[in-house]
Structures are given as C-alpha cells and as structure tokens.
Specification:
Layout: E1 2-4, H1 13-32, E2 44-46
Parallel strand pairs: 1-2
Length: 60
C-alpha cells in the first residue's frame, strides 16, 4: 500500500506527483525481477483529509 497526498490542493502533493513515476518504476522493476519469490500487488491511495469530518477515506 502506498499512501501519498495526490490531490493538487493538498499540501506537499506536488512532491507526491513528482515521485509517483519513480514509485511506479520501482514497483515495475520488483515485479519483473526473477530474484524474488513473491508477487507484489500495489495500490496508490490519496491521503487527502476530508475537511468536514477531519478524517481520511478508508482505503480498504
């Protein structure tokens, strides 16, 4: 599970948007590698907080 602020209005979201390609590339390299005996299932979740309830949406 990858948790990053992805909404453009969220503080620090530009950093998350900038590193997302690197995260995706790392995930791809792990999946394609024959060195690991496990499968990697990933999902990127936006950590934006709902200002009305002051809580983040549950990713699962």
């Amino acid at each position: 599970m990858v948790l990053m602020p992805m909404n453009e209005s969220a503080l620090m979201s530009s950093i998350s948007q900038g590193i997302e390609p690197a995260v995706q590339l790392a995930i791809q390299h792990i999946r394609e590698s024959q060195n690991y005996k496990f499968s990697l299932i990933t999902k990127i979740y936006d950590t934006e907080v709902n200002s009305f309830t002051h809580s983040a949406p549950c990713p699962w």
